[in-house]
Amino acid sequence: MPGHEAIGVVRAIFEWAALGIEVLGAAVIVAGVLRVALVHGTVRYLFRLDEPGAFERYKHQMGRSLLLGLEFLVAGDVVRTVALEPTLNNVSVLGLLVLIRTFLSWSLSVEIEGRWPWQPAGGAAAPSAPPAPLPREALS
């Protein structure tokens, strides 16, 4: 029976690890929202609505916290499902959760950056102009 005890210990470690990762994800979201609300000041933001870019800055700071927290929550789900109960039903539920959270992450990313995650930053680079021809004096 020592093998069953070792499996039980490993299972407990993975359960605690998954729970820790999920708690960390929730803590990141809560801390990020509190930081934006308190440090950057929701009240101060409300009084600066006429300032250009105030809403975008506020939204970007809030979105970053949400994105990071979502990543931790997905990681916790993966550890819990793959390491503990890799049944077809659990993997299907995990796939659905990851799909939903990925959609949320992409939506937040589009809101924050104004582009899809696979698009290059700053838009497509314009092709450079061909070099100017050398003057005739330089060719001789």
Helix content: over 70%
Cα-to-Cα separation, first versus last residue? 92 Å
Radius of gyration: 25 Å
Quickly count the domains. 1
Average pLDDT, all residues: 78
- Low-pLDDT stretches: 124-129
Portion of residues in beta strands equals under 5%
How would you describe this protein?
The chain has 140 residues and is an all-alpha fold. 74% of the residues lie in helices and 0% in strands. It contains 5 helices and no strands. The chain is elongated, with a radius of gyration of 25 Å. The N and C termini lie far apart (92 Å).
Descriptors:
5 helices; 140 residues; mainly alpha; elongated; single chain
Briefly summarize what is shown.
The chain has helices at 2-38, 42-47, 54-84, 88-113, 136-139.
